[in-house]
User: Fold these one by one.
Assistant:
Number 1:
Amino acid sequence: MSITSKLPHIGTTIFTIMSRMATEEGAINLSQGFPGFGADPVLLELAGKYIREGYNQYPPMAGIPGLRQRLAEKTQLTQGYFPDPEKEVTIVSGATEALFAAVAAVVRLGDEVIVLEPAYDSYEPAITLNGGIPIYVSVNSGDFSVDWEKVKAAISPKTRVIMVNSPHNPSGFVWSSEDVDHLAELVRDREIYVISDEVYEHITFDGRKHISLGSHPELREKTFVCGSFGKTFHVTGWKIGYCIAPVDMTSEFRKIHQYLTFTTVTPIQYALAEYLEDPVRYLSIPEFYQSKRDLFAKGLAETQLKFTPSAGSFFQLASYGHLSQISDQELAEKMTRKLKVACIPISVFYSDKRDDKIIRFCFAKADQELLEALERLKELPRVL
């Protein structure tokens, strides 16, 4: 017997490949997007407390009431609206699950889903597995801003969903209020849903504010807002996220969620619920990551790479086309083997694998590790 693959074009992700290569080569891993430092000891102690106290059986399918309440309060404080914790907030096993369940809830066979690229690699498989057709619209080269006229032109009678991401992975671009208004105008009077990947919601720099699509009165009625506690609190391995959506959309979302994972690890939910009681623990995140962005940008300026400091996320792009025309994947492999610094080639984020000679670094690492990587990057010309 042989399996006819539903995803014949999908192999091992570049993130797995580069992290494995980094381990094999003893390289500093600035490729995969996970923090290279520990979480707040207070949060870790809370997790241990709830494990020890016996909170280890199934919680409610939608998440424990306390965590949903704290998340609604956080949303009120940071975004100015209060989703109903009982009917509009669902705790899930990571933002990737939230994105998949949102797609599965609304996409039917033959529906078109507009994807702004470069895009995170989980979007397209979720669309394809649910019978949808991804329609790719490239953002503007250079600053990675959205060309809203191109998005408008891509809308057809078959358009069911527009998938968006801010702060953006891989570029770090952060949407403005004008961007949000443009999107609202496009879906107004159209039966189009929005799936908003907001996992880097608390990681913005230079005074920028993340604007959740849920904070826009019109978009709130059509949007699945998908977020990640793992990204915010440096515990990506806990795989815990959430989805906020209107009542009818949440109802359909939960039908999918209950048969994907049913629920999410119990003691971690209780730990996060208690941890979120102090808003400083998430309001201080931008300052924490800006110090790392600034340190990395200062060092990167002493290399021959060209870049614009990231506006958000914990990623920094850098271009090398003025130095060499080798492919970004070849450069990433050479850097890992010869400089012992691993990065991600940006071509993997495009459906057509276009190569603009740009690479992505993750600066969510210990300062000393970043400084050592930056010293090694000064030697880049010798590997080209």
Number 2:
Amino acid sequence: MFKAKIRLQGRHQIEETSVDLQDSIVNIHDTKIQLQHLRCDPPVSGTIYGVLLNYKGALEALGDLVNEPPYNQPPVAPILYIKPVNTIIGHGSAIPLPAAIEKLEMGAALGIVIGKTATKVSIDEAIHYIAGYTVVNDVSVPHKSVFRPVVKHRSRDGFCPVGPWIIEKDDVKNPNDLTIRVFINGKLVQENNTSNLIRPVEELIRDVSEFMTLFPGDVLLVGVPEASPVVGNGDHVRIEIDGVGFLENTILPENDVYSGGFSG
């Protein structure tokens, strides 16, 4: 069993619990319950920050374009953007497919949950500012530009599933060597590893906290691997991160989601 934090549906507080990652069992008040029988809200409370081009393959995929306008050179600092509160949904919730848009990109990401106020943190100190880790799907409308990430492509309602829990820091031995897998309708379509990060977890915290403060409850995404899977209406998405857990959601038309047409 791993120490974890979870927010049950409709409850304001985040509860400390333990989970069996292999069998998807959550221990709630000394009662063991299968995750499929639980309703969970997102287990995070702060701002979620995304990072572009932090996987080696994602940067390599730009090729010579990285040296042309508007980039002119490879990034020398993290390329950040915000996933605002309207984007955040939980495990099992439907991801809204906007009208007139046929496909969405699934962005499998390890989320670093900040445990205490972090300003100008060194690499050696960075691990002490982490509360734990969670699974995040950084959803976006397919687009080519990574220069000044476009709000309308990344910040639509329901475009950031998170959860179902936060695994405490000490139970994740090495966040820089975690395999990430994406399954669409049960088929493995993407696999990568955080060992391929350009800026490992500690370095990313250092570089971001150099110019901005991260607060308890904030989530810093390590980035999204290259070749993000593309999905459409009715597709079921499962993102797995070894030692952290899995996150599942289904794509449904936004009108069906808003009218209550999705029950879980």
Number 3:
Amino acid sequence: MQDVAGTGLRGCFVTGTDTEVGKTRVSSGLLRWLARQGVRAGGYKPVAAGMEQDAQGRWFNVDVRVLQQASSVPLEESQICTAQLRLACAPHIAAEREGRSIDRAGLIVGAHRVAAMTERVVVEGAGGLCVPLGEGWNSADLMADLQLPVVLVVGMRLGCINHALLTAEAIRARGLELAGWVANTVQPAMPFFGENLNTLRQEMQRRFQTPCLGVVPHLASPTADAIADSLDSALLHHVFALNQESGSAMAAGLAPERNR
């Protein structure tokens, strides 16, 4: 993946076959993997719906904090997420209930702000591919705005083959690059897991020439490091164009900073 003409962004856009399929956890794993390569990487979640209060009474979004902790550069929560909404529902509904609108241009500016502070940015979308974000536009339109290669997270459960193939078709139909997909085990004992995984590997390769970037097992503690261990390092070097260049921290022999 090279610099995108007209955007200057380098990294990937993580979407999923549905909501609650592990996009945030896979995004955190990608960020931690990049940090291991000495690459200064930051997470960016343009829109997050669903907030709670911490012990100090401050409102926060769990996904935003996961990305903040996994990023190898220090980022404020407001930098990681431009539009944080309190209600846990579809973003456009949450925004309407709060009497506000989601600023499409502002989301793009936010992505460039994080990109300017990092060498690679991992953008995580809200929900699935076509979640509405405002009147007449949705998450897929934002992907087209940013023009980043897409990593698809497939939640391994009944129906995942159909959901994955339909989503991949929609990504390609919009002229976006489908860089790869990650199988995330959301059920601890999915019936016929191996058969479903093999079918997905075959069909995603046959129809879209798209590789599986990793198989994440069902984890009692889905930490960024544990997920990074489940990803295919050789394929990710290609996805993030690290075969042609190294991160500046790695080139200088420096350990990447971690934002704990």
Number 4:
Amino acid sequence: MFYETHWRSIIKAVSWRIMGTVATALLVFIFTRKLALSLWVGALEFTSKIGLYWLHERVWDRLRFGKKEVRPAVIWFTGLSGAGKSTIADKVYRALQERGLRVERLDGDSVRDIFPATGFTRPERDQHVRRIGFLASKLEQNGVTVVASFVSPYEESRQFVRGLCGRFVEVHVATPLAECEKRDVKGLYAKARRGEITNFTGIDDPYEEPTRPELRLDTAALSLDESTLRVLQYLDKQVLRVS
């Protein structure tokens, strides 16, 4: 959803009127050869028509005639810890914000900071993803595009979320486990392999890869910019078109 700010309308009005005023003053001078009269007419036209132009722009901005709305969607990044989900999702989120879209960001780490009691057993993970999916679907219903990044390791949970959403885009960040372990600055994989952490996805808890995601990205082979570009290109072509 795009709209024009008041400042943009004002700047457009000023630049257009400067061009028009110079042309008008020049024509008056050509026909009358009176510089003072030319400047007076130009100043009068500038002050009167710039206000009319601004009013004209504001009225048309409020009319729905000829406008087409960008339909919202839920863009769901899934993958192993360290795969690059959040980093790509952050860039996609900022790019959509810059386009003027109504967009919200949901991330596994930030959500667990708010709900620290959320566990990591299969039933707890399943409930967690379903709750977030329900929230995302409600945001979508209210015209907000959602960029979500969660490990969300179980196919059944992700399909449940897909069923809740009107337009669901599953992005599998399919970075190999070995590469994810190399990037593990917090040492979580090492702790999981030593048994200090249990129910860790990819080690002692399975990650069920999406069977038919809309996009599959391997950040071991793609740079951050390349991955982000692929997501945005897909969204532009298949999802965020005007209705």
